[in-house]
Design a protein that fits this description.
- This protein is an alpha+beta fold.
- Helix content is 35%, strand content 14%.
- The chain has 23 helices and 21 strands.
- Strands 1-4-5-6-7-8-9-10 form an 8-stranded mixed sheet, with helices on one face. A 6-stranded mixed sheet has the order 11-12-13-14-15-16, covered by helices on one side.
- Strand 8, helix 6 and strand 9 form a beta-alpha-beta unit.
- The two termini are 23 Å apart.
- The structure holds zinc ion.
- Zinc ion (ZN) binds next to loops.
- The site of zinc ion has 9 residues, from loops.
């Protein structure tokens, strides 16, 4: 299953092991003991489907997709013209190998998308986007600006400077970046070196491949400046640490990590075809853009940076090159509605703020720009087109914020808004406003979550029973599992999938070992998946169907947090994360105070264990600590990476201790390893668990999520 080059989790070997399995269902899995119960006339498995239990799209699904074909603005083909404009050279090698020997990037698996006009299991709008994302090669944006597209989830851009090439957003991992640079040099690079690097924002698909193109010594010596928006380093990892394991697990749904690329499986991610699986790395920026608007001459090119915090990312910036009338719009504007709420899980983004920064970009630069390019998708040429896109995107986010809150102020709740809110027709007819990353459905719920939170204000949902605790009563009152299965089958056969999922989910919650119930719910999810325009929603339904049918694969879990990412983690963030890794139930009755000093960077922390809670505060020290631990931050990093235990650091004198050193072992004993395969759908978890034990003070957070 080649799909699993999408190694966005830290558990690279876990997923890598799955990738070797060839097809999705060949993965060795341990299933729960299951008992089949009565089920009437299930739909027949589909020959050619990647899963032995996979089904064909129903006539309801086929009709729905047919309907979409007739109502969407397919006559507007400008995206296809823009997508292929300026092609200098296609990439001829379909696979890019990782240094570690596996495939880092594979475009072969998406070629099926271009072999057919339509598929009855792929929403025509999503198919169109995935065909557009099949561009794979080197493109001229304008003379002096070039992009390599289709080598990763994101695009890498090159701007001609006085002495060399200014690189913008070096992808997710090093190997695709190296391949992109090679292709670029072969045709237009003229052998000139990299003269500067710009990271547009903090997400991992905009800097993770930097080591493929830049030598860190050249950055440290000042030869190659690396420019990024303010607070860049804090945000590169902060977003993914505290709930990192949960986010990694949820990526299996949003990014469909277990689904092979196939008409009935994974068909691309909307932003791009997937995420590369080479070596991620990070070189810290040397020049931060601190002001709202800041002009910097980069290798002889005048660039105007526009700070756009709390938009698509917590820290992000646009760049205008007035000499070329070229607007780099980062990821603030793409050929899709973006996520206000991201399904992998993240704090909800600020749609109104986002809209305002697009409006500023329009009025500062967009009234004169002649080309606009971005970190995903393809450029827009001509001022009229640029204005059309900027104005549409501005209104897209503002409308969503305003109209959702308009409804909320009239009593529409978070549990209803996705069935009520709609984009205005004018925006629905613009391809670049359709939902290939965000969707109006999950974003509208996100807007309410941001302003009002999870509660719909009905006390019945305020402190509800857990699903597994309430479901048995439903099943009993509905007359037992065979009645529910019969009715569920009937609803399924009538194409009433949302109603079917209501009752079948109750049954699966009540009876996790009921294979017939899980299989039928999987069939329902599968049809819902085929019907989605949004790849995150499609993948989530299909991923749940996959796990209900197959169980959660039991590969080995192995650590692979990038050393660069660990180094970028502040000591405070590390200590905060220890407080999360700690199982408080194991710390009952413990009480101690530790002074932590890291002399090489001049930081001090007061760490306290009290009330089964681990806290820390920077800049403070206790007068009477139980333990004082002095260790250079660079040495502490060895422990954080798992290269050398704290015990060994103390033993060889690298770390100095004063007081009760047994505290460190006590604290370590409360630390728990998070399993990246926790159960989401009932009855899908294997009986065994093989999470490797890691050192109490090692950090396992994974690479930052791309987006
Ligand atoms: Zn991105």
């Amino acid at each position: 299953m080649k799909k699993n080059q999408s190694t966005v989790t830290s558990r690279r070997n876990f997923i890598g092991g799955l990738a070797a399995a060839g097809t999705a269902f060949a993965i060795p899995v341990r299933m729960l003991a299951e008992e089949a119960s009565g089920r009437s006339q299930p739909a027949a498995p589909l020959k050619g489907h990647f899963h032995p239990k996979g089904k064909a799209p129903s006539k309801f699904t086929v009709d729905l997709l047919k309907q979409a074909r007739t109502t969407l603005p397919f006559a507007d083909k400008r995206d296809f013209e823009e997508q292929k404009k300026g092609l200098i050279a296609p990439m001829t090698e379909m696979k890019i190998m990782a240094d570690a020997g596996h495939v880092a990037w594979d475009m072969e698996r998406f070629q099926f998308l271009d072999k057919q006009e339509d598929f009855d299991s792929i929403h025509p709008s999503l198919l169109r986007q995935s065909k557009l994302n099949n561009n794979y090669g080197l493109y001229e944006v304008i003379p002096g600006i070039y992009q390599v597209r289709g080598f990763d989830l994101s695009d890498i851009s090159f701007v001609r400077g006085k002495t060399g090439w200014i690189v913008i957003d070096p992808l997710v991992t090093a190997e695709p970046v190296r391949a992109a640079w090679k292709l670029f040099q072969k045709h237009v690079g003229q052998g000139l070196p990299v003269s500067a690097v710009i990271y547009s924002h903090s997400h991992g698909d905009h800097w993770g491949g930097v080591r493929g193109i830049v030598n860190e010594a050249d950055v440290r010596s000042g030869k190659i400046p690396v420019i990024a928006p303010r607070n860049f380093m804090e945000h590169t990892i902060a977003e993914n640490v505290y709930a990192g394991n949960a986010m990694n697990r949820r990526l299996f749904y949003q990014y469909g990590l277990l689904l092979p690329a196939a008409p009935h499986g994974y068909v691309g991610q909307g932003l791009g075809q997937g995420v590369s699986a080479g070596a991620p790395g990070l070189i810290a920026p040397t020049r931060l853009v601190e002001k709202e608007i800041e002009e910097i001459e980069v290798d002889g090119v005048k660039m105007i940076f526009q700070d756009t915090p709390n938009t698509e990312a917590p820290t992000e910036m646009n760049t205008y090159i007035p000499g070329m009338k070229a607007l780099w719009i980062a990821e603030n504007v793409i050929a899709s509605l973006h996520n206000i709420y991201t399904l992998r899980g993240a704090p909800v983004r600020n749609a109104l703020n986002w809209s305002k920064y697009i409006a500023q970009a329009l009025h500062r630069f967009g009234l004169e720009a002649e080309v606009m390019f971005a970190s995903h998708h393809w450029p827009r040429w001509g001022n009229a087109r640029i204005q059309e896109v900027l104005r549409g995107q501005r209104d897209l986010y503002a409308h969503m914020n305003n109209q959702v809150l308009h409804y909320a102020n009239q009593g529409v709740t978070i549990n209803e808004i996705h069935n009520v809110y709609e984009l205005p027709q004018g925006l629905q007819n613009k391809w670049f406003c359709r939902g290939y990353h965000g969707s109006a459905k999950h974003n509208s719920r996100g807007v309410i979550q941001r302003f009002l939170g999870f509660w719909d204000c009905n006390p019945a949902t305020l402190v509800p029973l857990s699903p597994a605790d309430s479901a048995p009563l439903y099943v009993e009152m509905m007359g037992g599992s065979s009645k529910i299965l019969a009715r569920g089958q009937q609803l399924h056969n009538e194409g009433k999938y949302l109603l079917a999922q209501e009752i079948l989910n109750k049954l699966v919650q009540a009876e996790p070992a009921n294979t017939a119930a899980k299989d039928l719910l999987a069939d329902v999810f599968e049809q819902l998946g085929y019907q989605q325009e949004n790849p995150g929603l499609r993948n989530s339904y299909l991923a749940a169907a996959y796990e209900l049918r197959t169980g959660i694969p039991q590969g080995e879990t192995a650590s692979s947090s990038s050393p660069d990412v660990i180094r970028a983690m502040s000591t405070e963030l590390f200590l905060n994360f220890l407080g999360i890794r700690m199982d408080s139930r194991k710390a009952e009755g413990m009480r101690f105070t530790v002074n932590l000093i890291t002399p090489d960077n001049g930081e001090k922390f007061l760490i306290e264990m009290e009330n089964a809670t681990l806290t820390n505060i920077q800049g403070f020290q206790s007068d009477k600590p139980d333990l004082t631990l002095t260790i250079n931050r660079t040495d502490l990093e060895q422990t954080m990476m798992g290269a050398k235990t704290l015990e060994a650091q103390i033993k060889d004198g690298t770390a100095k201790v004063k007081g009760d050193v047994s505290i460190l072992a006590k604290l370590a004993s409360t630390m728990v390893e998070f399993d990246p395969r926790f159960q989401i759908m009932p009855g899908t978890k294997a009986l065994t668990s093989n999470v490797p034990k890691i050192d109490g003070y090692k950090v396992e957070v994974g690479a930052p999520s791309p987006e």
